[in-house]
């Protein structure tokens, strides 16, 4: 069985986050309509951007307001790529805040960490050659 993962980040400003991820990922979204932007990262993984207000309207009062968590890391997007330094640099140029430089990690990856404009932890990594 093959599962398809749709990872959706709640964002304060869909247009700003779309611009950030378009530049950082080096690709245009596959879907960009009011209320949802999607980037197909692979055949089985899609990264979505949904305005905080949209999810609040969709799920109502049963969901705590996501906007009260702004600035608090609420998710980590860990992307394995061929050139993590290139992606990390693009993210920083697009407005991310660096958390930790690209370096070898104890689990066998070389990874660099930053925060996207909404405070989600964004990681670019590859298997370490050492």
The largest sheet is: 4 strands, mixed
Question: What's the architecture, going by CATH?
Answer: Roll
* Strand fraction: 35-45%
Estimate nothing, just give the exact number of structural domains: 1
Question: How much helical structure, as a percent, in the residues?
Answer: 10-25%
Number of helices: 3
- Name the CATH superfamily classification: 2,3-Dihydroxybiphenyl 1,2-Dioxygenase, domain 1
Whole-number mean pLDDT: 91
Estimated radius of gyration: 15 Å
Shape: globular
Description:
Strand 7 (109-115) and strand 8 form a beta hairpin. Helix 1 runs antiparallel to helix 3. The strands form two sheets. The chain has a four-stranded mixed beta sheet with strand order 1-4-3-2. It has a four-stranded mixed beta sheet with strand order 5-8-7-6, covered by helices on one side. With 130 residues, the protein is an alpha/beta fold. The longest helix has 12 residues, at 14-25. It has helices at 14-25, 52-59, 84-93; strands spanning 5-11, 31-33, 36-40, 45-51, 76-80, 97-104, 109-115, 121-127. The protein has one domain (5-127): Roll (2,3-Dihydroxybiphenyl 1,2-Dioxygenase, domain 1). The protein is 23% helix and 38% strand.
Task: Give a short overview.
The protein is an alpha/beta fold and 130 residues long.
Descriptive terms for the model:
130 residues; alpha/beta; 2,3-Dihydroxybiphenyl 1,2-Dioxygenase, domain 1; four-stranded mixed β-sheet; 3 helices; 23% helix
């Amino acid at each position: 069985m093959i599962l398809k993962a749709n990872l959706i980040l709640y964002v304060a400003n869909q247009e700003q986050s779309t611009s950030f991820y378009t530049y950082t990922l080096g690709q245009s979204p596959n879907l960009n309509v009011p209320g949802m932007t999607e980037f197909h990262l692979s055949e089985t993984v899609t990264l979505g951007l949904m305005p905080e207000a949209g999810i609040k309207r969709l799920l109502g009062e049963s969901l705590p307001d996501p906007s009260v968590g702004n600035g608090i890391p609420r998710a980590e997007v860990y992307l394995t790529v061929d050139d993590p330094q290139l992606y990390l640099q693009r993210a920083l140029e697009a407005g991310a805040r660096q958390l930790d430089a690209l370096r070898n990690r104890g689990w066998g990856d070389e990874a660099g960490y930053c925060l996207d404009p909404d405070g989600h932890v964004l990681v670019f990594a590859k298997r370490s050659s050492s």
